[in-house]
């Protein structure tokens, strides 16, 4: 094949509207950008990336391409409670934050008297 038969991939042959439709087609595919572009025959990865950077700047973050849209999920997190387990001989006293000091003192006296 000689050089005169090779047809360059002309970036400027596509309008912004055409590139926008191509970008939307890729988004709908849900595929990885590189894999999807690799199967296309009428433009290169660099052409696609340049058009995407120009027409969809919201898809870029610090010059990096996001491969898909970010989705958020809610997660319920149970934080550990502030408790202290006090062990005295065969007894265990669990003291939570906001405890009643007088009650704990009375319980300790009862435990001390029990033995």
Describe the SSE topology.
Blueprint lengths: L15 H14 L3 H6 L6 H11 L4 E2 L2 E2 L17 E6 L2 E6 L4 H14 L1
Antiparallel strand pairs: 1-2, 3-4
Helix pairs in contact: 1-3
**Biggest sheet: strands, sense, closure?**
2 strands, antiparallel
Alpha carbon gyration radius: 33 Å
Q: Beta fraction of the residues?
A: 5-15%
Order of helices and strands: HHHEEEEH
What is the strand tally? 4
Which class best fits the helix and strand makeup?
alpha+beta
Description:
- The protein has 4 helices and 4 strands.
- It has helices at residues 16-29, 33-38, 45-55, 101-114, and strands at residues 60-61, 64-65, 83-88, 91-96.
- It has a two-stranded antiparallel ribbon. Strands 3-4 form a two-stranded antiparallel ribbon.
- Residues 1-8 have low confidence and may be disordered.
Provide a quick synopsis of the model.
The chain has 115 residues and is an alpha+beta fold.
What keyword list fits this structure?
4 strands, alpha+beta, 115 residues, disordered N terminus, rod-shaped, two-stranded antiparallel sheet, single chain
């Amino acid at each position: 094949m000689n050089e005169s038969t090779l047809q360059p991939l002309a970036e400027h042959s596509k309008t912004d509207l055409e590139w926008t439709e191509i970008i939307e087609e890729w988004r709908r595919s849900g595929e990885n950008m590189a894999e999807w572009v690799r199967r296309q025959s009428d433009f290169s990865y660099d052409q696609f990336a340049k058009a995407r950077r120009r027409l969809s700047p919201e898809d870029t973050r610090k010059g990096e391409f996001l491969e898909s849209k970010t989705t958020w999920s809610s997660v319920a997190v149970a934080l550990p409670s502030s408790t202290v387990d006090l062990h005295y001989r065969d007894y265990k006293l669990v003291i939570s934050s906001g405890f009643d000091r007088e009650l704990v003192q009375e319980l300790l006296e009862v435990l001390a008297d029990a033995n």
